[in-house]
Amino acid sequence: MSITLRELRAEDEHVMRRMHAQLSLEGFSFLLAEGPWEYVLRTVTEEASGIHLPADRVTADFFVAEADGVPVGRVSIRHYLNDFLHNYGGHIGYAVAPEFRSKGYATAILNLSLVRLAELGVRQALVICEADNVASARVIEKCGGQFEDARTHHGTTMLRYWVTTSNVDGQATAT
Asked: Taking a C-beta distance cutoff of 8 angstroms, is the pair 174, 3 a contact?
């Protein structure tokens, strides 16, 4: 099964809001904006263009991850790092809906995200996960992540990894 990343669409509202509700239970903000769907779409478009960014945000792509045409997750690919992202957020924030986990999708999503960062000229990508998210740490390491350190923010310990984007295979398939 192959994974593709694509832009968020109007017809994605139901499935993306369902995934948002599922992942909110785990403390993860799946959709990066709240409100009417038109507002969510506009916010994603503006963030990708780098316009009307709040002070704490950076230019970023928000993509739906699909496996053979079925949305399975999402990724936010930040074009550069501000102070907060350098310490606690990283270049890439990805999530796979619970019913699609353990199928290799996260690895494929991360690999495709690294390819996108390479296209943007980012040679070393910072990828961060919570210390208790063992599955995510394994994905990052599988994609070439080199552990740098752990940092704590508001009581949550974050593991920080650097990944060289030039070593990434642009053919993302999941098993």
From this structure: yes
Token digits of residue 42: 């506009």
Comparing CA positions, the residue from 86, 89, 78, 73 lying closest to residue 172 is 73
Predicted confidence band of residue 83 (pLDDT cuts 50, 70, 90) = very high
**DSSP calls for 98-165:** GGG-SSSHHHHHHHHHHHHHHHTT-SEEEEEEETT-HHHHHHHHHTT-EEEEEEEETTEEEEEEEEEG
pTM score > 0.85 for this model? Answer: yes
Burial of residue 66, with CB atoms counted within 10 A of its CB: 0-12 exposed, 13-18 middle, 19 or more buried: middle
